[in-house]
Amino acid sequence: MVLTRGVLLQERMEFLKEDLTHLFDEQGIDQSQYDDVVEFRDPITSYNEAKGYMFNIAMLKRVFAPSFQLHDIKQTGDYEVTTRWTMAMQVTLTRGTPISRFWDPKLVFTGTSVMGINPSNGKFNRHLDYWDAIDNQQYFSWEAFGHVLQQMTDISRTPKDLPTPSYSILKKFKDFEVRRYDRMLVAEADMDSRGPAAVTCATSGQDGGSPAGKGDGAFNTLAKFIFGGNAANARMRMTTPVFSDNRGAMQFVIEPSYQDVSSVPSPQTDSVRVRERSEGLYAVASFSGVADPQNAAERESALRQAMQKRGTVADGSDWLLARYNDPSTRPAFRRNEVLIPVKEFELW
């Protein structure tokens, strides 16, 4: 039976939606759906047969713990479809070794794959990957190699024993990434630098100060709340990161075992507020070192400029600072992030 072009393309897209879920699992993708001669190319690898493509997948599985998320797929030519995806890879060679205490990088790539289809047999005969973070997409791209190396040499740490908010990375550019955060519950307290003037600004929607301002009092208030200073005397788990915003508030994320605000133990003081942060899009720029007010402000300004360059529209002037590590962590190993809410964003 000969399929019309429209039916063939629709069938191929439905096939990829299911088949790509097995890209890195034990089942693997269906190699029979690729021509023996298939052009596969990304900025740092190139093969001209299906066996080479399968070898590349197997190599990634040996060296890393890779994951793949398909965001969307659409027709982009007469016999061509394009996928948009995120791929994350955690180095496995150092797991369980002392090295992982100091070096445990996670690599993230986002981009598109242009998939050509042979009209005579319906099989894929072309697979070309394009990364969002680079300009030079041609093999061999030294820019792409530098992007990989930069992520491989990142020594900032995320505490492994603490829960973190759930999010998906939709696009990763050279200087920032766009994330979709799931809803989360937070406990909130006013920072020490949030005096009467700052409170007035915050309630009127204006800037209440630097998210990197003095916050020892707020931190201690929130720590007391989650470690048993609540109506139920319940001890909750510490989470990471600690958020603070430009309206003068610090936030601890409530551990995920609590599903809604009503299930969280009530604070014993009006200094602590428990609320839900709805899901949303954020532009995020990461940096190490000390997140002091000047450094954080410079990072926020640079992020807004990068967003404007990429056509990513900020949702107002609000922004947050996320700090993942305790003060005893050496500055070079600290993970800090500036987050700006996103109003308009194009996935494609």
TrEMBL record:
The organism's place on the tree of life at top rank: Eukaryota
Pfam families: DUF2358, SOUL
Entry's transmembrane regions: none
Family membership: Belongs to the HEBP family.
Protein name: SOUL-domain-containing protein
